[in-house]
Amino acid sequence: MADNQWRSGDEQPLRDPEAGQEERGAADSASADRSMPCLTLFGFLFLTINSVIAVYRSQGDVPAVMFVGASYADLVLLFACLRLYERAAADSWTRRRLKIAVWILTTLLTLAFAYRLSSVMPLPMAALVCAMAAVALVGIYNAFFAHRAH
After folding, report:
1. Each residue's pLDDT tens digit, 2-35
2. How far apart are CA 150 and CA 77, in angstroms?
3. Are 137 and 110 in contact (CB under 8 A)?
4. What is the pTM (predicted TM-score) of this model?
């Protein structure tokens, strides 16, 4: 055997870093499908705590509570749809429906935040916020439906 295949003093051959990468990738993706990464879990915990604090600080302001609740529900549904979208088979009917759901949820969230933000701003700034939201939504639509990935 060649010298570079054996470690000095060990009986084990050195492995090629590229060898077996497909098997490791399949095993990693299978375990990733069943578990939620710590960073994602931390993000949801952070989102939940901030939502609870926002509801508490609203002191009974019903529109504020509804905005926080709707935004929280929208974000949770959006992340769930994105996770399902990533798992769905390419060019499947499920993946197409999930893409539409992601776009609708993103649109609702963008419009809700634009409305909420523009309601506390002077008219010229409110118009700018609404224009930026419209441009963002058109860009998201083009990215999702008009632009074909190669």
Report:
1. 554 444 444 544 454 444 544 444 445 444 455 6
2. 28
3. yes
4. 0.69
Token readout for 57 is 């600080």
In this structure, which long-range contacts are made by residues 106-115, counting pairs with CB atoms below 8 Å and at least 24 apart in sequence?
106/78, 106/137, 106/140, 107/137, 107/140, 108/74, 109/71, 109/74, 109/75, 109/78, 110/136, 110/137, 110/140, 111/137, 112/67, 112/70, 112/71, 112/74, 113/71
Q: How many CB atoms lie within 10 A of CB 74?
A: 19
The H or E element that residue 56 is part of is helix 38-57
